[in-house]
Structure formats: C-alpha cells, structure tokens
Amino acid sequence: MKSLSGKLLELQDIELKLAEITNKDYLEKTGFNIDNEKVVELLEYKKKLETEIPPQYLRRYRALMSKYKRAVALVYDNTCSNCFSKLPTGIKEPSDNEIVFCNVCGIILYFP
Amino acid sequence: MLEKLLSEERIKIGMEARTKEEALKELVELLNLSDESKQIILDALKKREVIGSTGIGRGIAIPHTRSTIVNEVYLIIGVSRDGVDFQSIDNQPVHLFFLLVAPPNDPGTMYLIVLGKIAQIAKRIAKENIDYLSIKDKKELIQLILSLEA
Ligand SMILES: [Zn+2]
C-alpha cells in the first residue's frame, strides 16, 4: 500500500508523462509512436488513483499544479527542491496518511 | 553535452536480461539511489513503455521518463549481446539501450535536448552499422558515443 505522498508523487509522474507525449517538440525530436488506446488506459488508471486521494489534498495538489506546474517536490539535503529553502528542524517524513508541506512555498514534500 | 552525463558507473556491457521488464530493472539498478527511488523510476519507465515501445528498431531502444523522484538527469547505457525482446517497432531484439531519467523541471530542458541527441546517435549507429557489440571496454563505448554526438 502506497503512502499518500507516494500516491501524489505517482499522480504527478503520470501527469508529467501525459504532458510529454502531447508535446509537439518531443514528438518531432524523437519520432516515437504513441498508442492512443493505451493512453486512454493510463488516463483511467490516473482517475482511479485520484479517487484514492482525499479530496482536500487533491484540491491542494491542483492549486499547486496551476501555480508551479508541479505539486510534489523532493526533499534532499533537508532542502525543498521547489524553492530551495532549508526545512525547519523538526520537519520529518510524514506517516502514510499524512502530508508535509514546505513552510515557504507550500509544495507537497516527498522524502525519498 | 553528453560528456557530463556519461559515466562508467552507469554503463553495463553484457546485460543478462531477456525481457523488457528485466532489462529496465537491470539498467535502473545501476543508479546510486535508494531501492524505493529505483522502484518509482522503474514504474514510470514501464508506464511509458505501455503507451508505446521506445524500441526504435535496428536493435536500439531509448527508454525514458521524467520523474519527481530524481533531482538530476541520468543517462544509463546497456549492451546486450543476445538481445532483449522489447516489442520494438521492427520486432527485432534490442542490443543497445540508452535509458534516460530526468526531474520534472530540469534547467534548460536538457532532457528534451539529450533525448533528441540520443535519437540522432541511435539513427547513425543503425545507418552506419556501427559495431558496438564488439566493444568490451566502457571507456571505449563512451568514446564511440561522444564521437557520434557532433
Ligand atoms: Zn519550498
């Protein structure tokens, strides 16, 4: 069973992929073939994943997405990889059903 | 551009994988990241393969994905003597892999540029029938790829 922040990260990774395969520059530069039926399956999987995320967090995810074009950012060296602020001492990895936000930019933090 | 991405640590000559899943796993295993991070990358690569194989034909594949779990661009090279069934567009087994992983917003869209460069190199290798399978030394393989970058 994935943690809540793990699900949000997976959702973001899927959305990155969907954005990529519809990017004209990407298709022109690489010439890869995309199977649209399989894209529909991925969209269905994404829908299912969204139902597993509590609505208030999904709303927050969407709001962050429209603000930063991403909603989940990695923590490394105790730093938020979205705004590069050092996290305050005491912030640690959330439990499976909780989420920790960056206290500066508000993004959802993922602790790898 | 490719020079700073190519590292002997991220090259595997003599891959053992036979299937697509095994090949992706064997290559991602070369990353110096946690098991959890590698699993997330593997999952993202597999999702990409489902919507269209990155086996571009003539024995070459370019599996690639962006993922939130990495904070820099990684390029991994794999060579398989026996070949891997990768459901390529020409149904031929894959002997040469260029696997690329990148963070969500990498500076200067390096990922797309690298992906384009690799696609060009792959086409050149196929077109000029370059014999990469006889290369035993990682340094030599790096030199070959760099010589094709121009
Ligand atoms: Zn932040």
The topology string of helices and strands of chain A comes to: HHHHEEE
Helix percent of chain B reads: 25-40%
> How much is the average pLDDT of chain B?
94
Q: Which outline of chain A best applies? A: globular
- Molecular shape of chain B: globular
Strand content of chain B: 15-25%
How many structural domains in the coordinates of chain B?
Answer: 1
CATH C-level category of chain B: Alpha Beta
Count the E strands of chain A. 3
How do the strands of the widest beta sheet of chain A line up side by side? Answer: 2-1-3
Work out the helix count of chain A. Answer: 4
CATH architecture of chain B: 3-Layer(aba) Sandwich
Count of individual domains of chain A? 1
Question: N- to C-terminal separation of chain A?
Answer: 16 Å
Written account of the structure:
- The complex is a heterodimer of chains A (112) and B (150).
- Chain A is mainly α and 112 residues long.
- Chain A has one domain.
- Chain A has helices at residues 4-21, 24-30, 36-51, 55-68, and strands at residues 72-76, 79-80, 108-110.
- Chain A has a three-stranded mixed sheet.
- In chain A, helix 1 (4-21) runs antiparallel to helix 3 (36-51).
- Chain A is globular and about 45 Å long.
- Chain A starts with a helix and ends with a strand.
- Chain B is of the alpha/beta class.
- In chain B, 37% of the residues lie in helices and 21% in strands.
- Chain B has four helices and six strands, in the order E-H-H-E-E-E-E-E-H-H.
- In chain B, strands 1, 2, 3, 4, 5 and 6 form a six-stranded mixed sheet that branches.
- In chain B, strand 2 and strand 3 (60-61) form a beta hairpin.
- In chain B, helix 1 packs antiparallel against helix 2.
- The model of chain B has no long low-confidence stretch (mean pLDDT 94).
- Classes of the chains: A mainly alpha (112), B alpha/beta (150).
- The A-B interface holds A 6, 9-10, 12-14, 16-17, 20-21, 23, 25-26, 29-35, 38-39, 41-42, 69-70, 72-74, 76, 81, 110, 112 and B 33-34, 36-37, 40, 43-44, 47-48, 50-54, 56, 62, 65-71, 89, 103-105, 112, 115-116, 119.
- The structure holds zinc ion.
- Residues 80, 82-83, 85, 102, 104-105, 107 of chain A line the site of zinc ion.
